[in-house]
Design goal:
Largest sheet: 3 strands, antiparallel
Radius of gyration: 20 Å
Structural class: alpha+beta
Strand order of the largest sheet: 1-3-2
Shape: elongated
Strand content: 15-25%
Number of strands: 5
Length: 92
Amino acid sequence: MQKKPFLSPADVAQELDISSTTVLRMIHSGELPAILVSDRIYRIPSASFEMYKAGTLRAAVLAPVGGVKRRPRLGQGELLPNARGETVARAR
């Protein structure tokens, strides 16, 4: 069986027998290195996780990458009709 190159916080939580919220806290504190895939999705490299379990992981170094680009929301800024059919409000 081939190992996955990246693990989700739920995978790590199951392996360590802790909650996924605790794993996210570890990521945010810099204790466990992770990659921000989108606004709220993190992935932990398998090699880093194995080093963490073995106790050989040094301080996490954040790679300088560009931020996640926000995608436009459909209808954002468009005028909307009210109950009488008059166009007054803007979509948020």
